[in-house]
Structures are given as structure tokens and as C-alpha cells.
Structure to design on (61 residues):
């Protein structure tokens, strides 16, 4: 079972969704500035964790 590529893809997509949610929420004033900061940081961490998993998997092939 290819767990790392699957997990990397899921984390990358969740990170992108989090970043898009943060930007749309900030533009429409749906979320406060502190929530925007928190969601953006969390989205970046999740996104880069997924990208790192995928990149490491490509290097080991």
C-alpha cells in the first residue's frame, strides 16, 4: 500500500483548501484577522508537510 503518496496528496489538498478558505474569508470579512492568521499558518504547515512527503517519495524512486 502506498501510504506516503496518498497521505502527501491528502495533506497537500487540505492545505490548499485551508489557504483558499482563509483568503476568501478575509476578502468577504467572514473571519477575523486573528482567525485569518491562524488558518493561514495552519494551512501553510499542512501544505508544506504534504509537499515534503511527495517530494521525498519522488527522490526515493
Amino acid at each position: 500500500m502506498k501510504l506516503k503518496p496518498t497521505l502527501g496528496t491528502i495533506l497537500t489538498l487540505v492545505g490548499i483548501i485551508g489557504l483558499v478558505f482563509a483568503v476568501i474569508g478575509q476578502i468577504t470579512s467572514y473571519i477575523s484577522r486573528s482567525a485569518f492568521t491562524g488558518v493561514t499558518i495552519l494551512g501553510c504547515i499542512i501544505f508544506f508537510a504534504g509537499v515534503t512527503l511527495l517530494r521525498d517519495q519522488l527522490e526515493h524512486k
Remarks:
- The chain has two helices and no strands.
